[in-house]
């Protein structure tokens, strides 16, 4: 049984492992920008953003991981969500991809940063 009225879209294996039992999680092994595009497509289909796609102080393309909450239910397309996700995609394109230059241990750190941001989003939205 899934908790909350939300879906987690992520490419972070740590988020998937922590939430897969009891939460609706869509885990895909794709890039940060592709996660944003996946969320954009779901927004066009009637879902709304519940967490900001550029949360945290890590710039897009400095980390390979991103987790975003969207509504489980669909309604008419939400203009605010469309504007936010499109801006995030544009911001992502402005930054050089750097995460392929890091050592293996850094990836675990980036997974933890993404998890912590998502966890605070879950808690602050009273969804946890």
From TrEMBL:
<protein>
    <recommendedName>
        <fullName>GrdX protein</fullName>
    </recommendedName>
</protein>
<dbReference type="InterPro" id="IPR047735">
    <property type="entry name" value="GrdX-like"/>
</dbReference>
């Amino acid at each position: 049984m899934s908790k909350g009225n939300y879906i987690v879209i992520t490419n972070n294996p740590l988020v998937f492992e922590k939430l897969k039992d009891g939460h609706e999680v869509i885990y895909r092994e794709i890039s940060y920008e592709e996660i944003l595009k996946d969320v954009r497509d779901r927004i066009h289909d009637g879902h709304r953003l519940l967490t900001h796609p550029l949360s945290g102080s890590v710039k897009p393309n400095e980390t390979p991981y991103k987790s975003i909450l969207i509504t489980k239910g669909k309604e008419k397309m939400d203009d605010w969500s469309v504007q936010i996700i499109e801006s995030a995609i544009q911001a992502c394109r402005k930054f050089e991809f750097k995460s392929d230059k890091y050592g293996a241990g850094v990836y675990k750190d980036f997974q933890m940063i993404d998890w912590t941001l998502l966890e605070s989003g879950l808690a602050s939205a009273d969804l946890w």
